[in-house]
Design brief:
Elements: H1 2-7, H2 20-34, H3 52-107, H4 119-129, H5 150-162, H6 164-170, H7 185-189, H8 203-206, H9 211-214, H10 226-233, H11 254-263, H12 266-269, H13 273-283, H14 290-300, H15 305-316, E1 319-320, E2 333-334, H16 337-349, H17 353-364, H18 378-389, H19 393-406, H20 414-426, H21 430-442, H22 449-460, H23 466-478, H24 485-497, H25 501-519, H26 527-548, H27 556-559, H28 561-573, H29 596-617, H30 629-642, H31 645-655, E3 656-657, E4 665-670, H32 682-690, E5 696-701, E6 710-711, H33 714-727, H34 730-743, H35 747-750, H36 754-774, H37 778-787, H38 796-809, H39 812-836
Parallel strand pairs: 1-2, 3-6
Antiparallel strand pairs: 4-5
InterPro entries: TPR-like_helical_dom_sf
Biased composition (Basic and acidic residues): 166-176
Biased composition (Low complexity): 32-42
């Protein structure tokens, strides 16, 4: 056997090579050990009159013999392991052969390949394997044993590994008399392993949970914690009378509750907050334990504002918020610094500035080492987000600067930097956002994808910064972030601002195709993407006018090689026929809008398609109608720029509803059936608009407005003024001016604050002045300015075009009076600045 081990036989064989002298000593040692036992661990006594050299040689010999004896003992143990392993493999092969033969025999094999096994042979085989259970008797009265399965093999393998000593004492498996009744359901379930939670739980929790309850949390991906909490609420933890072995059960402590709360994933905590509160209350761990109270207060921040506020107010009745560290002898829980920090975060989420400042003053009384505001950026981040919700940009920016310069411990986190960049983008302060971005690069703070996308969109909103916006998109690609629909929308926005119509159409069509494949049906892009597509049609007209004046414009997608590569890839993937109900865009990848008729025709066809699809889809994202005011406004801008004025008036009357009285019903002016087609000629359009009998009044509630129709607001009236100026139609401008005067008496307009009403009126007056100046009506424009000089602050910037018109026409008196209006406005502005200072 030793030679086989040296040769490497067996799974755990070890090859040993010994020198010749050692082999001689090994044979000598073997001879000694086979005779009378010799104690190799004790030093032998030296014989009388023995020479020193002989004694030294004998000691060396005994020392080597001792070492070889230890090696031989290790090899003997290894030999037993190899033998057991070989025996186990042989038993496994035997079980597999028996399983194959018995399964074929019972199923009824053929005479050639699958002979039928006799029942007695099967019984003998299962007795040899140690399984003596039998099933119910068959028709012939004989009992048929159950076939071995993977579960039974696993059980026997585990038993053989867990109890090797018992098997050596009792002998082979043939002598095992353990009987398992496979008809007994409870005994059969004992063959399977007991389910265990995928995370460690306190002993007091696992001791009261049954295997059925634990089976809900065996896998992290499919874990459901609600049945576990329900079981704890009905267990002896909350009801001591329900436990049968209370003496051996571990006590449920406050730390166990904290560990349980920390174990539950955040997304599953929100529906369990009230049950966790009940568990802390019924188990008794809440009273006198500030750490449990802090856990409960932190859980309240996961609930909606109103619900969380009510629950916090209930908990505050049992909290002592005094600054003393010791209790006053009552039953309340004494709050610590963590408690006040959680409450500060809670009131910051509720935007309660008074309470936030109160708790800040409480925390400022603590030493710096114990003040959580000076040891962590969490509280300052909550305060900054509170000011963001209150739309107080200055205080949010001040809080962000405080975090940076207070201490290293309160340095903003990547999430805080991203929040500041988002706030800068919303308030059109992209310069500060870029400065924050550069600061993140200098400090090597991890860039979040939301920050890069916000910077890209913010640059697109500022004139002349589209190139930098595309630079942030390239950085997004280089960082390896996933390209999803949000990234495609930002790219579409930049392409729209840049007037790159082929790129915009390609991205819009790719988003539609991707959404359709994911949903299995036609799924339109977001309404804002459709708005940008219509805006791009309008933007192309501006580029054409600049080209006529000698100013050329080349989009970034054609100038920058990196952006051009993205653009080419998008256009290659554009498929206009991906579905039988695909949007009706012209199947031209490089359609740049050079032909206004084709562009207007595509816009009209797309609008009809959207009206049809919106009726099928219904409400869009967030419960809002897909064809809302923004999309209708963008479409009317395209019609007003490229179609005749009569066509625009008819579309405006068809798609918008006047609400001048502010009552529950409105009047919808609908053209006759023959006038619905927007492709009719200009004469028919004019007849349809001017004929008073072509419209009929229909009273309908606001909530049942037809799809694709909206109430007229200031935005739509301003749109009409832009169109009247472009079309040089003074009569339509006068009609809108009169109608908006009636609109000012509506409930919607009167609900605005006085400053907002003045701002809206001043903007509309400037647009009316632009129409009058563009049409050369200097007299009416002059009267408009003089009649409103006591209400609006007219500056030279506002009156520049009118002053140039008066000089060109020779109206010197008008020019002098307008200069006086401008000076009067400057005096009023300086007076307001002194008062503000």
């Amino acid at each position: 056997m030793l030679r086989r081990l040296m040769a490497g036989n067996g799974r755990h064989a070890v090859r040993c090579v010994l020198p010749d002298a050692q082999m001689t000593n090994l044979r000598l040692h073997t001879t000694i050990t086979t005779g009378r036992p010799t104690n190799t661990n004790t030093k032998p006594r030296r014989r009388h009159m023995q020479s020193p050299s002989t004694s030294t040689e004998e000691e060396n010999l005994l020392r080597e013999s001792s070492k070889l004896a230890q090696q031989l003992k290790a090899l003997e143990g290894l030999t037993r392991q190899v033998q057991d392993s070989i025996k186990e493999k042989e038993n496994e092969m035997t079980r597999k052969d028996v399983t194959r033969e018995t399964s074929v025999g019972i199923a009824g094999g053929n005479d050639k390949a699958d002979p039928v096994v006799d029942e007695k042979d099967i019984d003998d085989v299962f007795k040899a394997l140690g399984i003596f259970g039998s099933t119910a008797a068959g028709e012939d009265g004989s009992s048929r044993p159950a076939l071995p399965t993977e579960e039974t093999d696993l059980v026997h393998n585990n038993q053989s590994e867990a109890e090797p000593e018992s098997l050596e004492k009792t002998g082979s498996r043939e002598e095992d008399n353990t009987v398992i009744d496979l008809n007994d359901e409870k005994e059969l379930l004992s063959l399977f392993p007991v389910p265990k939670a995928y995370v460690p739980l306190p002993e007091s929790v696992t001791s009261v949970l049954t295997p059925e309850v634990l089976s809900n949390i065996t896998q992290e991906q499919t874990a459901t914690w609600e049945p576990v909490i329900d079981a704890l609420l009905s267990s002896s933890i909350c009801d001591p009378l329900s436990g049968s072995e209370l003496a051996s059960q571990a006590d449920f402590t406050g730390y166990d509750f904290h560990q349980l709360v920390a174990t539950i994933p955040r997304k599953q905590k929100e529906p369990l907050v009230e049950k966790l509160h009940e568990l802390a209350l019924m188990s008794g761990v809440l009273w006198g334990n500030v750490h449990v109270m802090n856990d409960l207060l932190a859980l309240c921040n996961l609930l909606p504002n109103e619900k969380g506020k009510l629950l916090v107010e209930v908990l505050l009745q049992d909290i002592d918020l005094s600054s003393n560290d010791t209790s006053d002898g009552g039953s309340k829980v004494v709050a610590n610094a963590t408690t006040k920090a959680i409450l500060l975060n809670h009131y910051a989420r509720l935007s309660d500035v008074g309470k936030v400042r109160e708790y800040i003053a409480e925390l400022d009384k603590l030493p710096d080492s114990k003040n959580p505001m000076k040891t962590s950026p969490v509280i300052y981040t909550s305060i900054m987000q509170m000011y963001m919700r209150l739309d107080d940009y200055d205080l949010a920016k001040e809080t962000f600067d405080t975090m940076k310069f207070l201490s290293m411990a309160t340095s903003p986190s990547p999430r805080t930097y991203t929040s500041m960049i988002l706030l800068d983008t919303l308030h059109n302060n992209i310069e500060h956002g870029i400065a924050v971005y550069n600061e993140m690069l200098d400090k090597e703070v991890k860039l979040e994808p939301d920050a890069l996308l916000a910077l890209a969109k913010g640059c697109g909103a500022r004139r002349g910064m589209v190139d930098q916006g595309w630079g942030f998109i390239i950085d997004y690609y280089e960082n390896g972030y996933a390209v999803d629909s949000q990234v495609m929308e930002i790219m579409m926005y930049l392409a729209y601002v840049d007037g790159d119509l082929p790129f915009v159409r390609g991205i819009w069509m790719n988003i539609c195709e991707t959404n359709t494949k994911l949903q299995g049906r036609i799924q339109l892009p977001h309404a804002k993407c459709t708005k940008w597509l219509f805006n791009t049609y309008y933007r192309v007209g501006d580029i054409v006018e600049l080209a006529r004046n000698g100013t050329s414009h080349v989009p970034v997608g054609l100038r920058d090689s990196r952006v051009r590569a993205i653009r080419m890839k998008v256009l290659e993937l554009t498929n206009f026929n991906f579905h039988e109900q695909a949007p009706p865009l012209l199947p031209m990848v490089d359609f740049d809008g050079s032909d206004p008729k084709l562009m207007l025709g595509e816009a009209r066809a797309l609008w009809k398609y959207l009206v049809q699809r919106s009726q099928e889809v219904g409400e869009g994202v967030g419960g809002k109608a897909y064809l809302g005011e923004a999309v209708i406004e963008a479409y009317l801008y395209v019609v007003g720029r490229y179609a005749a004025m009569e066509t625009f008036e008819r579309e405006f009357d068809r798609l918008t509803v006047f609400d001048g009285d502010g009552e529950e019903s409105v009047t919808i002016e609908e053209p006759r059936e023959g006038d619905v087609d927007v492709d009719a000629d200009a004469d028919a359009d004019a007849a349809a608009v001017n004929d008073d009998t072509a419209a009929r009044a229909v009273a309908v509630p606001h909530s049942v407005l037809p799809a694709g129709r909206v109430l007229r607001t200031d935005r739509l009236y301003n749109l009409c003024m832009h169109t009247a100026r472009h079309q040089a139609c003074l009569s339509f401008a006068q009609r809108i001016w009169t109608e908006r005067g009636r609109y000012r008496r509506s409930t919607a307009f009167q609900a605005l604050s006085v400053p907002d009403q003045d701002a809206a009126d001043f903007k509309f007056a400037r647009l009316m002045l632009s129409v009058l100046t563009h049409t050369g009506d200097a007299g009416d424009a002059y009267k408009l300015v003089l009649s409103s000089q006591n209400r609006f602050v007219w500056t030279r910037y506002h009156l520049k075009s009118l002053l140039m018109l008066c000089e060109r026409l020779g109206y010197t008196t008008f020019a002098r009076e307008l200069d006086r209006v401008v000076k009067r406005g400057h005096k009023w502005v300086r007076r307001q600045q002194r008062r503000a200072a």
